[in-house]
């Protein structure tokens, strides 16, 4: 519209043979004096029927206009930030404006060949009723036909319903689809259509209107409800009204007096003066009679209280998109809202020489010749006028959201640009203004978008989620979003990109409907986001409704300097580390755990005195972060006292105490008289026993059974070295671990009594606690007792019991052929690294070869990778699998000082339009008087 572009095009071949139907004489029966119009680019026969629970047979019998209304209704709710589950069951009314029903002529002309459920497919009542049915809306539901003013009438009735308390929300829609030449020919016969196929609104060429296709949806609420719900408010409806012309010289001739009376009445009821409205979006059909009559009504009302220095501005969208008939009123409303938000007035396209009957100067009316800044400072107000060819008039008043709420002392979200001088100060950006509700322009008090003046933030990683009803829809949506951010210069040039991306992440996660096929991208900039969307998106099986995730806790040997340090930016993680620090200080810990977690150089993390408590502190903080996001395990498999904390058996402090005390005494062992070592080997438990039989007794033992093909050996360093060479020589994997001492071996007995005594004295597990979550204890192949006291708890960590860690038993729940009793949807490793992935995959393969592909494995941390990125990817994977997560908290955890806002200009749902649904009778297909006639009419 800013560039005066139009959608004018020739009638698509699939509609009818335009040249065959053409004849220049409008009075010639059975012909059309026009070959062009304004048509939707999409194939109107294409429809995402499965999304709306519509069978293929039913879809073929359904008017495409009704299908389009279903899709645009979803898009309207989506754009408003209202997921389907939030609108279901509510007192929401549905009001649809619709003027024509061409498909009925095509599909039901032959009584012996009518489509399935033809009555429901063609009934105008069903245009609104099916929307109410699908979304489970409980308010009024009606389809309205007042001809060209249908959708503005529908908006007025929706406003009335809200004022009366009959509804709490309303969906207003309008639709126009041109499928058959029959009604077109009737309009031609009445000399209503332009032989040029264009609405020459306000122009001296005005000779009728050009038909256009269109559809739109608008969600309205009472203002207080919208503010309460955190909705982004696009505009405020100050008043609305309708009337009818009464008896005029002919039934299709408008009445200037009736239109003027309606305008005065609507403004009087709203308590608003006529001289403060800066712009009027006119019906503006481009007919020789209609335009002068409508402008005379504007002159008698708005113009009469103006001067040459304070004129009222007018325009019309019809030259851009055609006369969309049943949708025309809403088309004007949408244009008016965009003008209010951006603070600009737009030119009316196709205006060459002004119609001499329109005395703009005398009437104090201005028609903008090009895009211009809003003519006044302060509140912005527009009117939208519409009338039907039978005399049904409608009028509505809109204010911009920002100034209205500011004047009323209200604080709500909106997307109004404040600066009315935007175009003058940014002439190169005339065509780049967007609807993004962010403070993109931050160079003065009159600039920006939000009245709260959001501060500029540092970029942080965010989780951006996507979902679809069908699996290929994920790639369609990713492509759509990627193209949008890649091509939109205004968004790429956002000054406060961090705020914008926070709002985007919030919108996608909490203000859109969530479906079963899911994926995600982790990014901190639009560039990184586009890169992720353009690459292969993570693919997952269809999500389930189960919440079965097991936490698997990494043991010793996976630690690394700086593990998890980036997560300190999450307040919950930082608070958990601080709590652990206080506990360690009470135990006279010689180091500052907060400082050590941040260390990347000079760290002592390889020392057991450091590694054990630091690993546990990080694991506990990860558990706390997961709890904040409402991610809780159904079972725990652990190598750490943090596992007992996750199972809600040990308290935070007790878990830290156990780790610290074990670290201290493990350090004593590492400094003992006998050097110890541990070895990871790619062999079975039975094969390990055979190798160990070649060693002196108790010099090396099996410390861990990781999987059917993986064990960890532990013991005297010299014999561990011999075994490493022997196992590797036989062609098996063998690698020494970077740990000291030899855990789970007889080496630990030298400090066992002192360690156990220290735990008891520290009061570990002093208060009996009920085990709330199944925990498969890793130091012995048994499930931990359900109730424990201080001595029994400490005994579980007793070094005198060098039993092997049997991960195979812990994770599969079976041994010696015993059937597994625990079934999970996902395994989440909680620890420094994805150390257990390989053995867990082997365990799953030993149970069922298909299990690794069916059961998700992911890890919160990965060695040497950014912890925020890996944690968000893990959470994204869990969510994609179907694990319920508080996504709003995941992305807001770093931004607690600020409320996010719904982004209103994101691409809508990516529909599956691969299949078309159409039913056309043989009579329509073959008759020479029907849509695809082969001969040229004007040749006869």
Structure description:
By secondary structure, the protein is of the alpha/beta class. The chain folds into 2 domains: 19-414, Peroxisomal Thiolase, Chain A, domain 1 (3-Layer(aba) Sandwich); 549-847, Malonyl-Coenzyme A Acyl Carrier Protein, domain 2, CATH 3.40.366.10. Strands 8-15-14-9-10-12 form a 6-stranded mixed β-sheet, with helices on both faces. Strands 26-20-19-29-30 form a 5-stranded parallel β-sheet, with helices on both faces. Strands 24-21-23-22-28 form a 5-stranded mixed β-sheet. A hairpin with a 2-residue loop joins strand 22 and strand 23 (710-716). The chain is elongated. The protein starts with 7 loop residues before the first strand and ends in a 14-residue tail after the last helix. The relative contact order is 0.10. Residues 422-438 have a biased composition (Polar residues). This is Ketosynthase family 3 (KS3) domain-containing protein. Residues 1-400 form the Ketosynthase family 3 (KS3) domain. It holds the Pfam family Acyl_transf_1.
Radius of gyration: 36 Å
CATH topology of the largest domain: Peroxisomal Thiolase, Chain A, domain 1
CATH superfamily of the largest domain: Thiolase/Chalcone synthase
User: Which structural class best describes the helix and strand composition?
Assistant: alpha/beta
What low-confidence regions span 5 or more consecutive residues with pLDDT below 50?
A: 425-453, 778-795, 798-802, 813-822
The CATH class of the largest domain is Alpha Beta
How many domains would you count in the coordinates? 2
CATH architecture of the largest domain: 3-Layer(aba) Sandwich
Oligomer: single chain
Q: Estimate the mean pLDDT confidence.
A: 87
* Percent helix range: 25-40%
What separation lies between the terminal Cα atoms?
A: 41 Å
Q: What is the strand arrangement across the widest sheet?
A: 8-15-14-9-10-12
| Strand segment tally | 30
β-strand percent reads 15-25%
The largest pleated sheet is described as:
6 strands, mixed
Globally, the shape reads elongated
Tally the helices: what do you get? 35
């Amino acid at each position: 519209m800013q560039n005066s572009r139009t959608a004018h095009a020739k009638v698509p071949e699939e509609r009818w043979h335009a040249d065959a139907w053409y004849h220049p004489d409008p009075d010639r029966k059975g012909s059309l004096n026009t070959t062009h119009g304004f048509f939707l680019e999409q194939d109107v026969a294409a429809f995402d029927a499965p999304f709306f629970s519509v069978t293929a047979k039913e879809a073929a019998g359904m008017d495409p206009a009704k299908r389009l209304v279903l899709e645009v209704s979803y898009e309207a709710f989506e754009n408003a930030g209202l997921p389907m589950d939030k609108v279901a069951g509510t007192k929401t009314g549905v009001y649809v404006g619709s003027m024509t029903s061409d498909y009925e002529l095509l599909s039901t002309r032959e009584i012996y060949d009518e489509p399935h459920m033809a009555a429901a497919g063609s009934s105008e009542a069903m245009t609104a009723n099916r929307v109410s049915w699908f979304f489970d809306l409980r308010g009024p539901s009606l389809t309205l036909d007042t001809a060209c003013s249908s959708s503005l009438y529908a908006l007025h009735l929706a406003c009335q319903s809200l004022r009366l308390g009959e509804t709490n929300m309303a969906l207003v829609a309008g639709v126009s689809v041109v499928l058959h030449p029959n009604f077109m020919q009737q309009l031609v016969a009445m000399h209503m259509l332009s032989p040029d196929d264009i609405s020459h609104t306000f122009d001296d060429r005005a000779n009728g209107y050009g038909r256009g296709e269109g559809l739109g949806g608008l969600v309205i609420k009472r203002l207080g409800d919208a503010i309460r719900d955190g909705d982004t408010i696009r505009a405020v409806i100050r008043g609305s009204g309708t009337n009818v012309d009464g008896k005029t010289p002919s039934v299709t001739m408008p009445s200037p007096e009736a239109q003027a009376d309606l305008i005065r009445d609507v403004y009087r009821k709203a308590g608003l003066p006529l001289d403060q409205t800066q712009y009027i979006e006119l019906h503006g059909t481009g007919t020789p009679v209609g335009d002068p009559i409508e402008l005379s009504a504007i002159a008698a009302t708005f113009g009469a209280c103006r001067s040459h220095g304070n004129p009222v501005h007018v325009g019309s969208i019809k030259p851009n998109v055609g006369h969309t008939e049943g949708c025309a009123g809403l088309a004007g409303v949408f244009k008016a809202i965009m003008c209010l938000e951006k603070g600009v007035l737009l030119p009316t396209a196709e205006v060459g020489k002004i119609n001499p009957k329109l005395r703009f100067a005398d009437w104090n009316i201005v028609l903008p010749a090009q895009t211009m800044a809003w003519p006044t400072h302060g509140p912005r107000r527009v009117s939208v006028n519409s009338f039907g060819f039978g005399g049904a008039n409608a009028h509505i008043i809109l204010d911009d959201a920002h100034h209205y709420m500011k004047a009323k002392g209200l604080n709500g979200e909106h997307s109004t640009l404040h600066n009315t001088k935007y175009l003058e100060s940014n002439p190169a950006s005339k065509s780049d203004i967007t609807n993004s509700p962010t403070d993109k322009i931050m160079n003065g008090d009159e600039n920006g978008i939000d009245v709260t003046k959001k501060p500029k933030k540092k970029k942080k990683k965010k989780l951006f989620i996507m979902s679809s009803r069908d699996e290929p829809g994920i790639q369609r949506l990713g492509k759509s979003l990627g193209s949008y951010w890649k091509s939109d210069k205004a968004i790429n040039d956002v000054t406060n990109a961090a705020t914008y991306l926070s709002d985007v992440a919030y919108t996608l996660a909490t203000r859109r409907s969530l479906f079963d096929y899911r994926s995600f991208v982790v990014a901190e900039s639009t560039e990184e986001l586009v890169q992720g969307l353009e690459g292969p998106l993570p693919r997952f099986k269809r999500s389930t409704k189960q919440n079965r995730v097991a936490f698997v806790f990494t043991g010793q040997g996976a630690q690394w300097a700086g593990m998890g340090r980036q997560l300190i930016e999450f307040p919950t993680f930082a608070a958990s580390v601080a709590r652990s620090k206080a506990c360690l200080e009470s135990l006279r810990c010689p180091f500052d755990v907060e400082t050590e977690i941040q260390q990347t150089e000079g760290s002592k993390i390889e020392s057991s005195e450091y590694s054990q408590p630091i690993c546990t502190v990080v694991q506990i903080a990860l558990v706390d972060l997961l709890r904040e996001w409402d991610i809780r395990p159904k079972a725990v498999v652990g190598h750490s006292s943090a596992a007992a904390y996750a199972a809600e058996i040990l308290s935070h402090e007790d878990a830290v105490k156990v780790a610290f005390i074990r670290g201290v005494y493990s350090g004593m062992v590492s400094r003992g008289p006998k050097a110890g070592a541990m070895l990871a080997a790619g062999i079975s438990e039975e094969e390990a026993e055979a190798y160990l039989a070649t060693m002196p007794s108790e010099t090396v033992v099996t410390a861990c059974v990781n999987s059917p093909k993986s064990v960890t050996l532990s013991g005297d360093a010299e014999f561990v070295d011999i075994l490493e060479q022997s196992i590797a020589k036989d062609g098996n994997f063998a690698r020494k671990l970077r740990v000291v001492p030899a855990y789970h071996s007889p080496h630990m007995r030298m400090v066992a009594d002192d360690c156990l005594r220290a735990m008891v004295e520290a009061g570990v597990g002093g208060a009996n606690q009920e085990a709330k979550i199944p925990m498969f204890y890793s130091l012995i192949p048994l499930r931990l007792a359900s109730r424990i006291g201080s001595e029994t708890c400490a005994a579980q960590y007793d070094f005198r019991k060098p039993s092997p860690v049997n991960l195979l038993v812990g994770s599969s729940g079976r041994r010696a052929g015993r059937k597994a009793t625990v079934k999970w949807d996902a395994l989440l490793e909680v620890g420094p690294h994805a150390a257990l992935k390989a053995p867990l995959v082997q365990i799953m393969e030993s149970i069922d070869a298909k299990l690794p592909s069916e059961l998700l494995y992911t890890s919160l941390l990965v060695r040497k990778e950014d912890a925020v990125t890996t944690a968000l990817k893990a959470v994204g994977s869990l969510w994609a699998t179907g694990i319920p997560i508080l996504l709003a908290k995941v992305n807001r955890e770093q931004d607690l000082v600020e409320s996010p806002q719904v982004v209103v200009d994101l691409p809508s749902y990516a529909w599956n339009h691969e299949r078309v649904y159409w039913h056309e009778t043989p009579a329509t297909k073959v008759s020479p008087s029907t849509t695809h006639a082969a001969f040229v009419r004007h040749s006869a």
